[in-house]
Amino acid sequence: MTPDSLTNHAALNKWISRMVELCEPKDIHLCDGSDEEWSRLTSELVEAGTLIPLNPDKRPNSFLARSAPSDVARVEERTFICSKREDQAGPTNNWMEDGEMRELLTEKFRGSMRGRTMYVIPFCMGPIHSPLAKIGVQVTDSAYAVVNMRIMAHMGADVLSHLEKEASGEIESNRTKPGFFIPCLHSVGAPLEEGEEDVPWPCNDDKYIVHFTRSREIWSYGSGYGGNALLGKKCLALRIASNIAREHEWLAEHMLILGLEDPEGNKTYVTGAFPSACGKTNLSMIVPPEQYRKAGWKTTIVGDDIAWLWPHEDGKLHAINPETGYFGVAPGTSWDSNPSAMESMRANCIFTNVALTDDGDVWWEGLSKEKPAHLIDWKGNDWTPDSDEPAAHPNARFTAPAHQCPTIDPDWQNPEGVPIDAIIFGGRRKTTMPLVYQAYNWSHGVYVGATMGSEMTAAAAGTIGQVRRDPFAMLPFCGYNMGNYFQHWYRMRRKVKHAPRFFHVNWFRLDEEGKFLWPGFGENMRVLEWIVNRCAGHAAGHETSIGWVPEYDDFHFDGLDFSREDFERVMAFHPDEWKQEIVSQGELFLKLFNSMPKELVYEKELLAARLS
């Protein structure tokens, strides 16, 4: 079958034909997402040395991949937002004029798939019948990307059939543009000449992850890893989707979606935005303490990473999770810290850059208190507890199907989404920020989200303790000018009749000896209970200069040895620290000065006035 007759979608065939002409692949394979296809591709990847089958008794249908040491993470410095004008991308994004970038990349992609198979992946982000569902088609020369995309998105023949029927008018669709797809071009940038031997992890040191915001295209070159290659994830679901959301009055956010059910059966859904290393995945899969479970509290997960929110006809913001899998950081994940994640990866999982045990299972730092006597590390070398380097890469990952999570919400694939009552922001702050406080209103809440951040922990000169601002946890993922992004959040208030409440949490405050003041993990349920009760009007909030806060008696501490004095320390408010906090926000405000909404400036001045 030729590229111009591969599907029953004329525009798609035309685009595929252009990509084939540009990239010059040896073969073309239209992915159907079937079990048979998975078995065939994983077998081929095992034969190529890209995947290692794990012990089927311990990890059924699961595999380990080891990337090249130069291809282990997102490459923000090589990630571009391409538009006609630089101010459209804004000062927090890397920018190149879209025509100039297209010309540069066309030469990079020319012949880039020579000697390889081009896989055509039809995929859908979000439940396919949701009004927010976005269909993309990714062409790639990476079978590793194909098998991961099968876990992370609705993928294959059903998606293609739906797209074809939309285009022909055979079915009605409530998507914004029925029949439209987002073109996604990906190559590892390692063509194979005749007789040349392949490597287990082909890639190119010259990397580009590029988003053409006007034409809604994604071009990724040189990397086979994570979000650089799984183009439905950060590239489509956040950078491109944020542009679409701004134009069509919804929100594409780097947020978890969590369901909380009280003993009376009342369900409250919350979203949460947290920078990296701030416990986002753990919170999305939280297991309440035993006394909460016995009392009848239940938690469910809709999504651990991305939320698309829109004003629903019921007057609330509704949210869907556009993904169908988890691409989680493995190190630090354990049965103690996140049992739900551990259950999710029991089978049908792909691990990348973790260590291999002698009995064919996987291991990483933080998985167990005792280190195994011998491992094969993520680079393929022998490893013992005396080794100087970690066994797993710090950014090692697991790709696991979401439906395997034991706390998956019954409505996680509801096309109408779930109604959101609270939006939670958080960061890793050893001082200043209390355990929890509530913003006064939507405007104040946007200010809290816009100024959130974490203290840097990397041992670089002059940076330890410095707060890195990460507005809404979207700094690497907003596909346009961040100042305009804030303006969009303020405009959305007019579209929502029943606005969610905004909160800020900080699980990481330290005492004078450097010890955590709050136990965290499952005990965070006590904070979530106050948030739920605040949303329902069942809990008191005490007004302070920074927002509404709980008192000791507003929390339930049954089963936890946590005194009134302990609570006062984790909730302590020091005006001098907050005045310094306002000063430290100045760098972000100056960077975005030309597009900064006046409401944010007013909120900053109001906070300063309340502190004086």
Structure notes:
The protein is of the alpha+beta class and 612 residues long. Helix content is 28%, strand content 22%. It contains 18 helices and 31 strands. The strands form six sheets. Strands 1, 4, 5, 6, 7, 8, 9, 10 and 11 form a nine-stranded mixed beta sheet that branches. It is globular, with a radius of gyration of 24 Å.
Helix content: 25-40%
**Structural class of the secondary elements?**
alpha+beta
pLDDT < 50 runs, ≥5 residues: 457-462
Mean pLDDT: 95
List keywords for this structure.
single chain, alpha+beta, nine-stranded mixed β-sheet, 18 helices, 28% helix, globular
Summary, kept brief:
With 612 residues, the protein is α+β, with helices and mostly antiparallel strands.
Topology (elements, then pairings):
Blueprint: H1 10-23, E1 27-30, H2 35-48, E2 51-53, E3 63-65, E4 79-83, H3 86-89, E5 94-97, H4 98-109, E6 117-125, E7 134-140, H5 143-152, E8 154-155, H6 157-168, E9 182-187, E10 208-212, E11 217-221, H7 226-229, H8 232-248, E12 251-253, E13 256-261, E14 267-273, H9 280-284, H10 290-295, E15 298-303, E16 307-311, E17 317-320, E18 325-329, H11 339-344, E19 350-352, E20 355-357, E21 362-363, E22 375-376, E23 382-383, E24 397-401, E25 418-426, E26 436-438, H12 442-450, E27 453-455, E28 467-469, H13 482-492, E29 501-505, H14 525-536, E30 542-543, E31 548-549, H15 564-570, H16 575-584, H17 586-591, H18 598-611
Parallel strand pairs: 1-6, 3-19, 4-5, 4-10, 7-9, 9-11, 14-25, 25-29
Antiparallel strand pairs: 2-3, 6-7, 6-8, 10-11, 12-16, 13-14, 13-15, 16-17, 17-25, 18-24, 19-24, 20-21, 20-22, 22-23, 26-29, 27-28, 30-31
